[in-house]
Fold Poly(A) polymerase.
Amino acid sequence: MTLPRCAIFTRVANFCRKVLSREESEAEQAVARPHMTIIPREQHAISRKDISENALKVLYRLNKAGYEAYLVGGGVRDLLLGKKPKDFDVTTNATPDQVRKLFRNCRLVGRRFRLAHVMFGPEIIEVATFRGHHEGSESDRTTSQRGQNGMLLRDNIFGSIEEDAQRRDFTINSLLLQRSGFTVRDYVGGMQDLQEGVIRLIGNPETRYREDPVRMLRAVRFAAKLNMRISPETAEPIPRLATLLNDIPPARLFEESLKLLQAGNGFETYQQLREYNLFQPLFPTITRYFTENGDSAMERIIAQVLKNTDNRIRNEMRVNPAFLLPPCSGIRCWRWRKKSLRRAVWPITTLSRWP
């Protein structure tokens, strides 16, 4: 059977389109591929003795099983800054199910972000699979889903180590430490930003904030905690996107509020939250008591409570959220007298009304 001449031309044209589109796609990927910088062991201050033995065990077992695995995130950042990390995170090309098969002391958590928690008594090593880009990926609603405002409701697209570095929030949190050789990999300029004290979002700031509005809170928290400055392009969209926090579940906002205000720099964090219009979505009731000059009784109480809390943390004293959060919930204290600021007491029941 002989095909009509028009059909032959159509097939040839379609074939040419496929070839050209493939070449364009490969060219775009080559341009988009990040330049990797490797920092050798002698050029950074990370020491093996400062890393959790359990984290090293997780890396070793994953590597022995044939998987790539790296320390990543705040743990690597803090080690490079000479600080003691509170926890250690691992990123790998092993899927959550593959991680679970390697560790009997492992459980899978999360629906939005599927993670593996490897438990060593009270210590939990969080293991995440390399994340991939959503654009152009063939996925269903069980792996990738966005809300109307662009928020990622599900983010279980797996990818390469390069894509994973680009998918992280801030450049300073994207640095990876390799167990063998103890080298640090930098795909997005995180080392330079760390040295210059800059909080910089990876990718288009507005898109990344819409994917996860909590990133706005994290930018402020890291700036206050690490005494860094937020880059102009990272800071610019925050005030106009602050209302996106209203879409975050209250339980997650509560957890983030504790991180913001109980890290030893709560007062500085509070000032930045107000500067970027982020305090109102967190504690909507309390803004009714605020004044333009910032000198209302409620504002003075909050400032005093946060300063006292910061002092307690610096002196390694316990901090109770029952003392910290009620004044931020907008409930009047029992005694407003100025002399009673340090001894003011709020009913515990106000915690149930947060925010």
User: Anything to note?
Assistant: The CA atoms of residues 4 and 10 lie 10 Å apart. The radius of gyration is 24 Å. The longest strand covers residues 123-129.
